[in-house]
Amino acid sequence: MGELLELTVAQAAERIRAGELGADEYFAAYRDVATGDPLNAYLWTAEEDGSGGDGELGGIPVAVKDIFCTEGVATTAGSRILEGYRPPYTATAVRRLREAGASVLGKTNMDEFAMGSSNENSGYGPVLNPWDRRRVPGGSSGGSAAAVAGGLAPCAIGTDTGGSIRQPAALCGIVGMKPTYGAVSRYGMIAFASSLDQCGPLTRDVTDAALLLRALQGRDPCDSTSVGIDGGIELPSREDLNGLRFGVPKELAGEAEGIEPGVRESFERTVALIEDLGGDVAETELPHATHGISAYYVIAPAEASANLARYDGVRFGLRSEGADLTETYERTRHDGFGPEVKRRIMLGTYALSSGYYEAYYGRAQRVRTKIAEDFANAFERFDFVVTPTSPTVAFELGARTDDPLAMYLSDYCTVPMPLAGIPAISIPSGLAEPDGGGPQLPVGFQIAGPAFSENGMLDAAHALERAIGFDASSPANGGGA
Amino acid sequence: MILTGSLAKPAADLESGAMIDREQVLHVAKLARLQLGEDEVERMAGELSGILEHVERISELGLDDVEPTSHVIELENVLRADEPRPSWPREKVLEQAPDSADDSFRVPSPQA
Questions:
Q1: Cα separation of A205 and A218, whole Å?
Q2: A328: pLDDT confidence band, cut at 50, 70 and 90?
Q3: Shortest Cα distance from B15 to chain A (angstroms)?
Q4: CB A93 within 8 A of CB A345
Q5: Which of A142, A411, A472, B102 is a Cys-bridge partner for A163, taking CB atoms 3.0 to 4.6 Å apart?
Q6: Which residues of chain B lie closer than 8 angstroms to A182, CB-CB?
Q7: Residues near A242 by Cβ (< 8 Å), separated by ≥ 6?
Q8: pLDDT reading at B7 higher than 50
Q9: Of A86, A319, A364, which has the smallest distance from its Cβ to B58's Cβ?
Q10: To probe the interface with B, which of A161, A185, A346, A375 has the most B CB atoms within 10 Å?
Q11: Average pLDDT score, chain A
């Protein structure tokens, strides 16, 4: 049984197709561990294999972040305001996985409405990091990351707005990919910041990420911003990096403050590996990337304050009745939203209010243009830019909860990419000791590329992953790198 | 939306540091239809001020000639055929409502 749970998605799917492994047996093995979930990674688990079928993902159970609507199955987005909500429809991303033969194993815990970098903002308790249960798994897709890293799911999907797939993947020692904006439909994905939100895979290796993205991507008439990836996704096969040029932006790597020594060391070791594999590496600059956090924490809350206006106690979810309709709105939102969501609604409403709109939102949108231009300039000289995914390894529960700004700075290396709409992948690059000592924890290495460069990026990540040799099958195995 | 009082001060004042006070917190909360407890108002004033202080670093940048970006992927007029199609059944949608009556959502009176 233990061995069953160590198979990658590609390996398990192959055995199921060959008739060497029963889809029922495989699903039941995962259902048992997911039901016993010691990490608070799941908010709901499936009783039985409901939908698995033929296809490339035939018989593969998938953990689905609880931000994706699933018809008839509770969907909370980690918020008490949606407790008991059963959507009347299913998100396109989930439907596409099912059409490829996968089935939903469970719905995973997350920061409320995807707002957070530690999973401590969930209305249903924090998720624990499988490498060290006193530490956070990252966020907001922390449940999805912890489930995959902790052997409670073979793969998962999440959403990334400012780093919410890549940062938890890094902190849990797995692969996480944010595709180009528009690659995957957002239909049925509960909206946080609509111009940034994108769905992507969290998996044990790069090949599995490609398998999931292959099923997920595509144009969807229900999301007019979805365009899919031209020609679809090829499975990665590259074993060298000959002829590829990698830029190291000094603002997000060399000169960046707050990067832990252990993370820096792992990053530099991985950059050396790129050269060993035949890649060219040189320093580059993204002059406006240092303003990414500022632009992001105006744009995302502004869009969120509009998107979250729908939670008013009228059509679904919680209602706290007041004396009149306005008071009912105000009390419902007081009772239903947690502190971080309230903070962002306030921040966004303030930034959009009359007299402040141009000073905050207008300026942030102009910074966004500059950040996108910086990347475009870098991609004239380089195929990819590489950075640490997170400035630190997983931090202790409670370490940043009293300081919202310190928490926001966890996203320093991941927010510029969604602001520019470009894809990025985080792969584990090894282990490092946290600042202040303690057992070694996973470090993530981020590769970002131009819009719709997913195939080349997956290929490069695949070659690098092989050279790093990180064993992500289980934290219990110690990582192996 | 017309704002009065301290919120309506011109944006040029931002460089001097837009500290958010209690009155502003209450005003924004009203705009957001969000009731805040006494402790939340105090905490929010401090936290929002801290975040905005960081955010205001972007005012150092010369951005006058820069076009704003609201959408990152180039798309133009994504239209579908204007054909009627069935929507979700009314009862299925109303099932999720906290309160419903006569095939409709029921809410408290706008004016009690």
A1: 22
A2: very high
A3: 10
A4: no
A5: A411
A6: 73, 75
A7: A277, A278, A279
A8: no
A9: A364
A10: A346
A11: 95
CA gap A397, A405 in Å, rounded: 16
Confidence category of residue A473, pLDDT binned at 50, 70, 90: low
A173-203 pLDDT per residue, tens: 999 999 999 999 999 999 999 999 999 999 9
pTM of the model: 0.94
AA letter at A461: A
Q: Which residues of A touch B73 (CB under 8 A)?
A: 180-182, 225, 227, 421, 451
Return d(Cα A173, Cα A150) in angstroms, integer.
Answer: 10
Q: What is the mean pLDDT of residues A316-326?
A: 96
Write the pLDDT tens digit of every residue in A51-63. 567 899 999 999 9
How many CB atoms sit inside 10 A of residue A242's CB?
11
- DSSP calls for B24-53: HHHHHHHHTT----HHHHHHHHHHHHHHHH
pLDDT attached to residue B112: 61
Name the token pair of A206.
């790069």
B37 to chain A, minimum CA–CA distance in Å? Answer: 8
CB nearest to A355's CB, from B7, B44, B66: B7
Q: Which residues of A are catalytic?
A: 65, 140, 164
Whole-number pLDDT of residue B8: 34
User: Given a cut of 70, is residue A476 above it in pLDDT?
Assistant: no
Point out which residues pair with A384 in neighbouring strands: A246
Look at strands A424-432 and A175-178 and give their pairing: antiparallel
Say which amino acid occupies A455: N
Evaluate the CA torsion angle A454, A455, A460, A461 in order and state its sign. Answer: positive
Average pLDDT over residues A33-55: 88
Which residue in chain B is spatially nearest to A344 when comparing CA positions? Answer: B48
Select the residue of A298, A334, A343 nearest B35 (Cβ to Cβ).
A334
pLDDT of residue B18: 53
Q: Are A248 and A386 in contact (CB under 8 A)?
A: yes
Q: Please tell me if residue B56 touches chain A, with a CB cutoff of 8 Å.
A: yes
Instruction: Write the ipTM.
Output: 0.90
Q: Do B107 and A330 touch (CB under 8 A)?
A: no
Distance in angstroms (rounded) separating the CA atoms of residues A159 and A65: 8
> Which residues on chain B are in Cβ contact (under 8 Å) with A368?
68-69
Average pLDDT over residues B24-39: 96
Name the CA radius of gyration of chain B, rounded: 22
A122 neighbors A112 (Cβ within 8 angstroms): yes
Q: Is A430 left (phi over 0), alpha (psi -120 to 50) or beta?
A: left
Nearest Cβ partner for A367 among B1, B63, B88: B63
